[in-house]
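Example 4.3 (complexes with small molecules)
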Amino acid sequence: MKYCKRCLYPENHPLNLTFDAEGVCSGCRVHEEKDVLDWEERKEKLRSLLTEFRSRSRSLHDCIIPVSGGRDSYFIVHTIKHEFGMNPLLVNYNKHYNTRMGIRNLAYLQSLLGCDIFTQTASPSIVKKVTRESLRQLGSMYWHCLAGGTVFPVQIAVKFKIPLIIWGAHQGNDQVGMFSHLDEVEMTRKYRKDHDLMGMEAEDLVRNSKELTLADMEPFLYPHDNEIRSVGVRGIYLNNYIRWDSKAQHEKMIAAYGYETSVQQRTFDTYNDVDSFHYSGIHDHIKFLKWGYGKVSDHASREIRLKRLTRAEGIALVRQYQDRKPEDLDLFLKWAEISEDQFWQWIDRHRDPRIWQKDPSGQWQLLDSVIHHEHDQGVDAVRLPRQEPCHFQLNPPRDPNAVEDKYILIGRGWVDQNE
Ligand SMILES: [Zn+2]
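Answer. The structure with zinc ion bound is encoded below.
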């Protein structure tokens, strides 16, 4: 397997990347733009774009922001509301795998930033069916979260005629350099299908299923092109206008609002996915079993590019985390009502043969890993200097006695600040 000489990405990255003559990946090259673009100018460009929507919209809400109890939600809402003076409507697809901490983060987000929120909770029995199908057909337990999370904001935009949706970072741009920041790429149905949904729309999932009907899939169906056109729905990505640094952004939000953080099972980043039982657990283990690398490679590559980790330090972190067995499998199997044997059978079907092979005794062997490529020829020539330390904070939880042992399907949506 070929690995980038600067970050840790392999050539079989599912979003696709390319390598230049120096062996540096397209993600690293586009990332260099972060240090050369005039971000003040780009921010002004965003300001005038937002102004256009503010004046055009007849609704009380000027834009829609998809949020969760983790990731970049606080930063996006804070920036759009306080820095740009917009009045966003928050929308949240209930992913069903919620931790208490995630529900708390979401409640405080809404309360401290004073926003209205819509939450979509699809029928749990249908979500379970959809999840069994997506595991079988794609080896994914997260398809419903991705499909629901990317479509619910568009459905609300159409329904309430609020034409602007504001997303955080575009993964195709931030991870693999599919586009330049200057392309100002916007949300499309096609990118969602090809990349977010791994090529599988709701209609495709139903077509190959004995269990599901199209009527079950309403929370996952993209609105018709005509509806999108008549409202003029656009989805923009903030990382095209603001120099994206997820770690620094989270730290500002921890200081300003007490955003809660948590140790993650399979990565060193304590900020990103604290709202989900599985994202950094079994879901990430599945990613490793499919592609031969996990979230820790994503996080370390990001920190290498931002000059907070050396490549060798990143590789040490991969060595530490990538094989770690997650502890949340039983919880998921019980919820999804499937046996462990069935689960592994579905996952094994989706292993990438470029990186996994079965040996004669029937055991899966990982053919390569970036941990064997620390000293590849050409690595020194493209190395970035480490300029600051890479320390991830762990702030004390708001509720130190809360036990995280079961999903919180839906929590109280508000917080009384006198409590
Ligand atoms: Zn790279």
